[in-house]
Amino acid sequence: MKKRKLTIQALPFMLPSMLGMIIFSFLPIVISIVISLTDWNGLDKLNAQTMKECMVGLGNYSEILRSTEFWSVLWHTVYYIIFYIPLVLVMSLFIASILNKNMKGIGVFRVLYYIPVLTSWVAASLIWKWVLSPQYGIINQLLSYIGITGPNWLTDKVWAMPAIVLASVWKDMGFYGLFLLSGLKAIDVGYYEASRVDGAGKVRQFFSITLPLLTPSMFFCIIMALINAFQLFPQVQIMTEGGPNGATQVMVERIYTYGFKYFKMGYAAAYSWILFVIIFVLTLIQMKLQKRWVYYES
Amino acid sequence: MNHKEKKKILQEIGTYLTAVLIGVIVIIPFLWMLSTSFKSKGALMQIPVQWIPKEPSLDAYRTVFSRFPLLRAIGNSFLITGSYTVVTILSASMAAFAITKIKFPCAEGIFKLYLASMMIPTQVTLIPLFVIMNKLGLINTYPSVILPSLFRAFAVFMLVQQMRSIPNDFMEAARIDGAGIFRIYAKVIMPLTGSAIATLTVTTFMESWNDYLWPLLMLSDKNKMTLTLALNSLNGQYGTEYNLLMAGSLISMIPIIIIYACAQKYFKTGLMSGGVKG
Amino acid sequence: MKKKMLSAVLTGVMLASMLTGCGGQGNETPAQDTQQAQTEDQTEAQADGESSKESIDISAVNAGEESVEIIYANFNASGGNEETLNKMYEAFREEYPNITVNIETIGYDDYFTQMQTRVAGGTAPDCYELNIENFAAYANKGVLAELTGIDVSGYNATALSAFQVGGKQYGVPGNFSNVVLIYNKDLFDQAGVAYPDDTWTWDDAMDACEKISALGDDIYGIYQPITFNEFFKVAAQYGGGVLNEDKTEFTINSPENIQAAQMMINKIVETNVQPTESQMGGMGDWDLFESGRLGMIPTGIWAFGAFTDACEFNWDICVEPGGTQKATHFFSNALVVNADSAKKEAAATWINWLASSDAAAKMRIEAGWDLPAINDDTVLAGYLEITPPENRQAVFDSLNYLAVAPIIEEYSMMADIITDKLALAASGELTVEEALNQAQDECSLKIKL
To answer: Is the minimum CB–CB distance between B49 and chain A shorter than 8 Å?
Structure first.
């Protein structure tokens, strides 16, 4: 009885987003499952008959999983994530704590740090191509002052992926930083006052109040960063196009290439469902683990 | 001046210095963007790099302004992005409210479904979604680019995360005062989510403003063209003129920066300072 | 909970099948259909257009029919030539007042993603532009209408032949650019080497390269990108090719091809008259030439404008050196008609006019917007008057040796595989022979011809 009442109460609130989800997300996703079971080329008209004609069952999946390319592409993606997520989290936490200080003129920095987020990836990638240019780029010029010959960043197999991590952290840290900031702001000042009365120092306050109360925001950032990192694409497409020699080929880059360059849309769809399973499992693990470390007040 | 005050001042100076250092790192690439936009075509690739263009020129801006009906494009962009943002905020906050505060049966299940929908790369759903829009007869209409904002999993996720940290006491207190469910949503929960809504407004506005593949597919009518679409036609088959691209990108960034600056004051007010303390 | 999810999934599937089920007719196979359509065409050519499914007879169109409105999408006018295209359209309207063309000019970067989506979604424009890589795929997949009855005498024959698949014409060459050897006269003077001429082979060029490279640490003889595009042309210069004659087998590691690839790669790894990736330091090849540090660069005639603006030294052009024979590149975009369009006649009339009419050709030359792919020397003559380069005649001389790209359905994949392997050879990780052997194996494995 109570359940029904709750459902009726929730219905008007859920209706718009449910409707949007079914039409604009769920349906296309279901269709893409069907596509992943075909060898559709992405040019013939998309309808039931075409799908029936080019049905190949699970062929795409087994072909992908048996190819050596898939595993190296997966490794590149994981490699990116291992560097990107800790770096971007530390940097954004750092930014958030600076911006949270009640000092004059801090508003200027709040705008400043957000500028990379506001820039489109097209412009940002072009800028970074120049920043990373081995002989004329600013990074290698700075390195040369301290006697280091910088690498050929984007054309060096070893350095291309770290370079992309660097650019991505630069672009994204303001975004997560701002989100963590809104988490910081939401912490009741009363907690700090109370702990000060108890004689707690700044460090202890950070670990016993700030961090625990920030965990919901951190959790959000990690999940989002993970999902986004697996879908890393525009910066790779513009900065390296998957090169040098495939060293920066990542999942979505492959999906795009197969679907829109090689006209193997079925293969691309299967690729993205494999990607989905990977992200899904990892997110599920995160969700399970969150009970151990994420702290909700209510 | 006692010891404690000295320490405080030193700390502040330290913080400022770090803030400036990060600021410099962040801003250098952007300054290059600015300087490129004021270069003439010839000065673009000169070595050594000209930090400050020797002969600054407004050519790039002039060209950008003359190539397409800029004002009309900006108007369209505002119309689309504005509606998109409003719809996103409304729809997502309502859903997040129902999921976290009404806790109807299978709220968690639906929430997980929402999350899962973010994990499929948009590249493969592009053609199916296009076909659906075609069947709905929406191609070449503004709704085709606005309606998808009804469902933005990211926004719901973000607000759910924020609303979860609002203690339920507030709801109970309001309920005892006799407030209905809509009133609780509008007058209690929404104000308490203020700074997250501000963040979301900025990111949604920015995403919609910068989005261009979907509008490109949907709006072929020149009169409905957005600013990003107009700027896209600057890139040609045999390479891009960087000064034009940078000038165009800068022009298109101005509205977002203004919106961001306006949203500033909402970041400052924390959750609890609203005075609703239980 | 589980039940709800399941039922939601089921509704979704049902909805999906409904949506897709009511879509238009399935895709007919082009081969059997064209024949039928061709015969139909002869009898119903002037009908409303619905009748012919896959092929279209341009010659059957006459002006003064009832008015039609068509959509034409292109990328070539983006980046500065939109005005010229509009002018061309105005001239077209005077000749064909009954045909209204809605021109959509879209930036190059995402043009093909949006076009593929529109084609698959069943709402492709009536006529549109395709680059050569995509043309191959589109034509093979049967989404283009065959163009019959064109007056081919007006077109450059090689360019026209590039857009034939299985002996059928699926597109007309809309614009045309070829590749010549551009050289820095000042560097040749300093090195005391005679200017290159049309008789040069790569051996002559290599001699010159070494002398020019000797001028300084930062100066290089030549830059020739190590890509598939460059490779198939150089292979042709040595009598090789990546496919056998009837395109049934790859011949990537043939002795001629190995000789060609060796010439390309030795310049980098052995003599170093061409900079390595790290010596390039992230600069583009044009930048290197414009900064006066490069002796020669085989590149497209679309570089003329940029070089005229940016180069502070004297430069000129000649026909690219050859191996055992000459072969030169050209780039051309196909103008095609959508096989599903209801207004194929009008669409074909427009693209044919745009590609080959004197009026359009003249405007194209005046605007410096590529070359029209026509063979009328009097129209082309205007092109010769613009300098630099002084030796503009070389642009036309180069046309005598055009090499046609090996068009196959999976062109992009083949190109990527070969480019990747050549890059490995250029970085010294593989020998040239190993690289081509691997490319041969990988192409044969992944691509069905």
So the answer is: yes
Question: How many Cα neighbours within 13 Å face the side chain of C132?
Answer: 22
Indicate the residue of A19, A178, A298 with minimum beta-carbon distance to B164: A298
- pLDDT interval class at B48 (50, 70, 90): low
Find the domain containing C414 and state its range: 178-330+391-446
Omega prior to C389 cis, within 30 of 0: yes
User: C119: which chain A residues are within 8 Å (Cβ-Cβ)?
Assistant: 43
Counts for chain C of helices (H) and strands (E), in that order? 19, 12
**Confidence band of C62 (pLDDT split at 50, 70, 90):** low
Encode pLDDT of C199-251 as tens digits. 899 999 998 999 999 888 888 999 999 999 999 999 999 998 999 888 889 99
At residue C33, does pLDDT exceed 70? Answer: no
Q: Name which of A257, A222, A221 is nearest A236 in CA terms.
A: A257
pLDDT tens, position by position, C250-267 = 999 999 999 999 999 998
Q: Is C225 within 8 Å of chain B by CB?
A: no
d(CA C317, CA C181): 5
Distances (CA, A) of B59 to A198, B38, B39, B40, B54: 65, 8, 8, 7, 14
Instruction: Read off the CATH number of the domain in which C312 is found.
Output: 3.40.190.10
User: Phi-psi region for residue B50, left (φ > 0), alpha (ψ -120 to 50) or beta?
Assistant: beta
Nearest to C107 among B42, B47, B234 (CB): B234
The verdict on C427 and C403 lying in the same domain is yes
Residues of chain C in contact with residue A132, where contact means CB-CB under 8 angstroms, are 282
Chain B nearest-CA residue for C119: B127
Residue A201 CB-density burial (10 A; 0-12 exposed, 13-18 middle, 19+ buried) = exposed
Closest Cα in chain A, distance from residue B19 (Å) = 7
Single-letter code of the amino acid located at C100: T
CATH, domain range B58-274: 1.10.3720.10
Residues 6+ apart with CB under 8 A from A185: A100, B195, B267, B268, B269, B270, B271
- Among A220, A213, A207, smallest CA distance to A286 is for A220
Q: What is the ipTM of this complex?
A: 0.82
Residue ranges of domains in chain B: 58-274
Rounded CA separation A238/A235 (Å): 5
Across A78-96, average pLDDT: 93
The CATH-assigned architecture of domain A67-263 is Orthogonal Bundle (1.10)
B175, burial (CB in 10 Å: exposed 0-12, middle 13-18, buried 19+): middle
Nearest to A287 by CA among A229, A227, A230: A227
Per domain, the residue ranges of chain A are: 67-263
